[in-house]
Amino acid sequence: MTTLSEKGLQLSKNAFFNFMVSRASGIMKKPVKIGLLLTTAYERLTDANSNESGVNQIKDLMFRLIRLVKAYYSGAYRQVETKSLLLGVAVLLYLVTPLDLIPDFIPIIGFADDLSLMAWFITAFQDELQKFQLWEESSVAVGHS
Q1: I need a surface site. Which of 7, 69, 98, 118 has the fewest CB within 10 A?
Q2: Could you say which DSSP state residue 5 is in?
Q3: What is the CB-side half-sphere exposure of residue 99 using CA atoms within 13 A?
Q4: What is the rounded CA–CA span in Å between residue 20 and residue 86?
Q5: Backbone angles phi, psi at 72, to 5 degrees
Q6: What is the phi/psi pair of residue 22, to 5°?
Q7: Domain extents in the chain
Q8: E strand or H helix at 22, and its extent?
Q9: CA torsion 110→114→115→120, rounded to 10°?
Q10: CA–CA separation, 80 vs 128, rounded Å?
Q11: What is the C-alpha to C-alpha distance for residues 73 and 85, in angstroms, rounded to an integer?
Q12: Interatomic CA distance for residues 21 and 88, integer angstroms
């Protein structure tokens, strides 16, 4: 049986996700569009109702990704590889795009492909997300000194 992350890896190799990567490349040059994407992704994640601990962990890490992208575009945080940022933006685009492999209006199953892609990203780019978390925590500590 494949894990959620392995399913996400398979999704990351399909043509639709590659299309999302090319869209992400264009959007990354437009801070206003990034802002809209982050707002939409945040709303989408907030609307994803689930009390499953694994889902909540994925959501928390995706919220961290949203904060990372926001910090990058505000200029506050730049210690992220361009490839990681590009793939993160592509995952967020996939999350908010109404057309994906399994429509989200199909309960549970419709959100499964989104979850698996998020799980893959989190697994593949865990170091980047952890570096950002440490930066966030030290920034808060410095800000409150």
Answers
A1: 98
A2: H
A3: 4
A4: 10
A5: -65, -45
A6: -65, -35
A7: 4-136
A8: helix 15-27
A9: 150
A10: 6
A11: 11
A12: 9
CA distance 106 to 98: 12
Q: List, as own/partner pairs, every contact residues 134-143 make where C-beta atoms lie below 8 angstroms and the sequence separation is at least 24, other chains included.
A: 135/77, 135/79, 136/64, 136/67, 136/71, 139/76
In tens digits, the chain (145 residues) has pLDDT values of 568 788 888 888 988 888 999 999 999 999 999 999 998 888 878 766 655 556 777 888 889 999 999 999 999 999 999 999 999 999 999 888 866 544 544 444 556 677 788 888 888 898 999 999 999 999 877 765 4
Give the DSSP per-residue string, 31-88.
Answer: HHHHHHHHHHHHHHHHH-----HHHHHHHHHHHHHHHHHHHHHHTS---S-HHHHHHH
What is the reported pTM? 0.80
Amino acid present at 47: D
